[in-house]
């Protein structure tokens, strides 16, 4: 009789012990996972940002065609002077790339207009300098038209010796004043 009670007790206790053993291993892994989560949360809090799984970066605003055109124009206006040799009106080859950049911009923007201003140093008569400034401006105009720019986009003006950028009677001042300037309207 006593033995039967013990055997029944063992049969009842054995599944309970088995369940407890299985559940204890699950709870230990849960406890470890919870510990890892709290550690990562603590490190995120310590760094000042919470890890949400979403990367945060800077959003770059896409520029409108008008903004791009304006930036190109401003870049060209920083480099808009073609210098000439003494008493010459032909464009030196060192300025071909500069003029090609301006021509490309004007071809891509047919509504854009440019005025080419011709200038001279103060040597020569006023009439001669007006004519030389005009020849210089027209030389640049011809180059631009040969590069595909419409004649309707270009106007020419000669200031002769009237608007010098450098004062004085030095060769350096004269060289800076012998120029054509592309001015966008």
Automatic annotation (TrEMBL):
InterPro entries: Bact_OuterMem_StrucFunc (IPR050330), OMP_bac (IPR006664), OmpA-like (IPR006665), OmpA-like_sf (IPR036737), Pal (IPR039001), Pal_lipo_C (IPR014169). It is a lipid-anchor. The keyword Cell cycle applies. PROSITE patterns: OMPA_2, PROKAR_LIPOPROTEIN. GO terms for cellular component: cell outer membrane. Keywords: Cell cycle, Cell division, Cell outer membrane, Lipoprotein, Membrane, Palmitate, Signal. Pfam families: OmpA. Residues 33-65 are annotated as: Disordered. Residues 71-185 form the OmpA-like domain. Residues 1-21 form the signal peptide. It comes from the Bacteria. Residues 33-49 have a biased composition (Low complexity). SUPFAM superfamilies: OmpA-like. GO terms for biological process: cell division. It is found in: Cell outer membrane. The Tol-Pal system is composed of five core proteins: the inner membrane proteins TolA, TolQ and TolR, the periplasmic protein TolB and the outer membrane protein Pal. They form a network linking the inner and outer membranes and the peptidoglycan layer. PANTHER family: LIPOPROTEIN YIAD-RELATED, STATOR ELEMENT OF FLAGELLAR MOTOR COMPLEX. Belongs to the Pal lipoprotein family. Part of the Tol-Pal system, which plays a role in outer membrane invagination during cell division and is important for maintaining outer membrane integrity. This is Peptidoglycan-associated lipoprotein. It comes from Planctobacterium marinum. The gene is pal.
